[in-house]
Amino acid sequence: MSLRGPLDRTTQAMLLRQLYLAYFETRRFERAAEVAEQILALGVLSDVAHQDAARAKQALGDIEGAVGHLRLAARTGPASRRAFHWWTLGSVYHLARRYDEAIGALTRAARWGTRDKPLYQGHLAVVQCESGKAVEGLGALIDRLSEVPAGQGYGRFVLGQMAYFDQRWDEAKKYLEAFVQRSTSGRAAVAIALGAEIEAARRTLASLAER
């Protein structure tokens, strides 16, 4: 259909996001980052565009660039998505092994979280364990997360890592295998975005196989 007038900014942003996803799925991360910046210039869906830009920057190895965009997402996004943005920031810090900063961001995510609070609390516990801190009540956190929708998808990664630190080996194996299977059998964008987590899960599985 021909258009009788110019596209509104929201429609432009949505079309550009499809272009972003196409670039991201073909690992053209610099182009994906450029498109995310174009979306930001439109002034709509800004926190989503910051998330997209951060994902591309992270894939390029530009951690500080990713962090900057995620902090802006948390600052400018609606309250309903603030916890998600802090959690994503915490995840970036976690994967970079910047544990103190990860703990700070995930603590904020857990504070703001509602429906997905058990995921944020669980992820915070994983980072604390990896950083050498003692965490009490891991079993309760595992049980709580396993009973809510947030325990699916990415939640299986968090559940597997918590189970590993709680020495629940069979559960850790079950959750991590399910996470890897689900993350690598769907859209390419998911496997690419979760590449570091997939590798971390595989390392933990390899450690379990040696027991």
From TrEMBL:
<protein>
    <submittedName>
        <fullName>Uncharacterized protein</fullName>
    </submittedName>
</protein>
<dbReference type="InterPro" id="IPR011990">
    <property type="entry name" value="TPR-like_helical_dom_sf"/>
</dbReference>
